[in-house]
Amino acid sequence: MARRNKGGRSSSEPAALPDRDTILKFVADNPDRASKREIAKAFAIKGSDRAYLKDLLRTLEEEGLLEKRRKRLTRPGALPHVSMLEITGRDSDGGLVAQPAEWTSEHGDRPPVIEIRTGRDDARTRAAGVGSRVLAKVFPAGEKGGPDYTGRIIKVFEKSEHAVLGVLRKLDDGTVRAEPVERRQPELLVDSDHLNGAKPGDLVEIELLKSGRYGLAKGKVRTIIGKLDSEKAISMIAIHAHDIPHVFPPEVVAEAQQAKTATLKNREDWRNLPLITIDPADAKDHDDAVFAEPDGDDRNPGGHVVTVAIADVAAYVKPGSALDREALKRGNSVYFPDRVVPMLPERISNDLCSLREGEDRPALAVRMVIAEDGRKIRHTFHRVMMKSAAKLAYPQAQAAIDGVPDDKTGPLLEPVLQPLWAAYASLRRARAAREPLELDLPERKLVLNPDGTVNRVMTPPRLDAHRLIEEFMILANVAAAETLEQKKQVFVYRVHDAPSLAKQEGLREFLQTIGMSLARGAQLRPAQFNNILARVADSEHVTLVNEVVLRSQSQAEYSPANIGHFGLNLKRYAHFTSPIRRYADLIVHRALVGALGLGEGAITAHDEERLEEISAFISTTERRAMKAERETYDRLIASHLARHVDESFDGRISGVTKSGLFVQLPAYGADGFVPVSKLEGDYYIYDEASHALTGERTGKGFRLGDEVVVQLVEIAPLAGAMRFAMLSEPRQMPKATRSYHKSRSKMRAGKKRPTRRRR
Please, is 319 exposed, middle or buried when counting C-beta atoms within 10 Å of its C-beta (0-12, 13-18, 19+)? Predict the structure, then answer.
């Protein structure tokens, strides 16, 4: 057996190979140079010695000491090398101190402290101040007692005005105070001459006023948003809480109004091609249109020609313009039940770029030839002028195919709709062969009353019409990525990393608790996850396993470096099909225009150089939008259920932590919490692997996915939070779970007692 030195390296290994401690230190100290290639270069590892390096890095990943992000390695829990930060204060020397802009308790107990580096002539640092959001490169500091990281500012975003959002209430002495929505903000005193027509109970936006050193700070009402229980007010809470830009500056509005309609110059005339849009019935903008027909080439029997036309936003939003700067600042549109906070002004998004029925519109189109089995044979891109032949809703198009056409879809059925569905049948075969990840997670939609309150929660049916558009868009996105790669044009990929080895191990441990096995060591593919889901499809574990598999996945993001898209099982993928609502797609459009010589609006050299920064930023704005949308949904449901305190509900355990149980109400799609301190009858120990709280004495407990009955005992509509009491009795944990739980407890014996709570 080979002898090992103190660093863990076998004496039979080449002397040039660094030991594990050296590798870990290099990754920590050089987050910008931590790919396998860069590590090999740094330590002059060549030839067959690279195999040793590969094995060592994999071992460190399996042990949870390293994890892979895109093509770079990093220490678990480390911040991305390019991060969005919020300046939170100054240190004793007056230097700026920051923390990650997006930080939740699931990331760690406390956000890391980042000390901003200052240079002799650093205009960007001077432009930043407390409250600023900045994009920065971060580096581990490594000094005990000092900051966790140091950061160098790349870009400073406009300071938030920090207008306070609050609810007015009148005290017994007649004074009016504003109770802020955010807990960190103190109450404000609002004088009667500063109410501007607002009344107690109104949700208002308040401008802070200068006040004396003593007493409450003062403010004046700037905007009356509405009553607190209206949806408009609740979505505005999320907008303010996440600093989402929602008012277009005058220069942006002016530029949009002055935009001139695109002409046929340098465009192909496709206005006679019967492209149609298929969207939700309430869609206000239409950025994609589709058409399909049989391929007339005898060499492709059963094949099809699929055309996807996308609104040519690049024709109106020029690089460096006021419209462009604002679009990047927003990153994407944000969708709430009552409103949309658009990336672009209505003049652009709902008018000039929207592919309206019967109106000439500029588009960037891709024509794709597919075989009978759905394989794409070839494709070409075109800059065109088109005219939508029809605007259809998903149920309307589906009804026509199902044999119930209406006056509009009847004439389109044979020449347009049936060829579309025939092409979709081929693409469906290709999808089945590709085997992307197939999670069964239904989406819910709120139906509102005219006053903005919740009427009901519904789960819209998933139609073939939805799947058709989805597959056409995926095909077009792949074509865009392939073309830009072939042209050696830098652009932004949509990437989705494979689950980390640590998450794979966690899934493996969980599956053992329900009597299922998962091969160890090999990198999992989507098909293996699908096999897991298929094995439990008709069992009591179906919901539970879907949830755990989802939690094992990485988060998709944008990057100029390609690692493929794990979930879709694609080697290269870009977002091309929604430039009205996503800045990433606009970048891809500009890259295509430049690479293919399609006229004005090409990507600039300046933007090419900062694609890493842009990618990091728009990935952050996407996460911001998702969080704001979810919080608004939760606040709405909490407001809706406020009148049902003390009532009981059927629920399902959707999360398990050492602090308690998250319980989702399937009828509403919202979560509440059962504190572990309120679970009676036993000491409950948190078992991370089996996602359970198990009674130490009885072996009974609660596990992720369990169906339970809970009582709503407390609700906080402003926070969107609900507290439940558990009415269901704990159930006997499966033997596999209990034996695993006991072995874990024994492993901890003599070190640290498992987390438990007294009932």
Answer: middle
Query: Which of 282, 334, 353 minimizes the C-alpha distance to 579?
Result: 353
Contact 626, 663 (CB under 8 A): no
Structure tokens at 572: 């290269």
Alpha-carbon distance of 78 to 65, in angstroms, equals: 11
Question: Is the pLDDT assigned to residue 78 strictly greater than 90?
Answer: no
151 Rama sector, left if φ>0, alpha if ψ -120 to 50, beta otherwise:
beta
Distances (CA, A) of 199 to 176, 232, 277, 700: 9, 17, 45, 53
Strands 376-387, 268-269: pairing is: parallel
The torsion angles phi and psi of 388, rounded to 5 degrees, stand at: -60, 130
CA distances from 600 to 167, 261, 338, 476, 589 (A): 49, 14, 36, 22, 11
d(CA 288, CA 26): 47
How far apart, in whole angstroms, are the C-alpha atoms of residue 336 and residue 246? 12
Residue type, 492: V
Give the alpha-carbon dihedral of 61, 65, 67, 71, to 10 degrees. Answer: -80
- Say whether pLDDT at 1 is over 60: no
Residue 281 tokens, joined: 């019935």
pLDDT tens digits for 15-57? 457 888 888 878 877 776 777 778 888 888 887 777 878 888 8
Which helix H or strand E contains 23, and what residues bound it?
helix 20-29
Cβ-defined contacts of 381-384 (< 8 Å, 24+): 381/479, 381/480, 381/483, 381/592, 381/596, 381/598, 382/268, 382/270, 383/266, 383/267, 383/268, 383/312, 383/593, 383/598, 383/599, 384/267, 384/268, 384/269, 384/270, 384/309
**Is the backbone of residue 736 left (phi > 0), alpha (psi -120 to 50) or beta?**
alpha
* 739 contacts: CB under 8 Å, gap ≥ 6: none
Q: How far apart are CA 224 and CA 202, in angstroms?
A: 7
Nearest to 353 by CA among 378, 389, 388, 398: 388
- Give the pairing type, strands 276-279 and 390-393: parallel
364 CA to centre of own chain = 26
Reading the block at residue 743, the tokens are 């072995």
Phi, psi of 686 (to 5 degrees): -80, 120
User: At 506, is the pLDDT very low, low, confident or very high (cuts 50, 70, 90)?
Assistant: confident
* Tokens read off for 49: 């010695």
Residues paired with 202 in a beta bridge: 227
Structural domains in the chain plus CATH codes: 20-74 (1.10.10), 82-157 (2.40.50), 164-228 (2.40.50.700), 250-492+569-628 (no CATH), 645-757 (2.40.50.140)
Q: Give the global pTM.
A: 0.79
Alpha helices in 176-307 (DSSP H): 231-241, 250-258
Q: β-pairing, 114-116 with 149-157?
A: parallel
Strands 67-69, 707-716: pairing is: unpaired
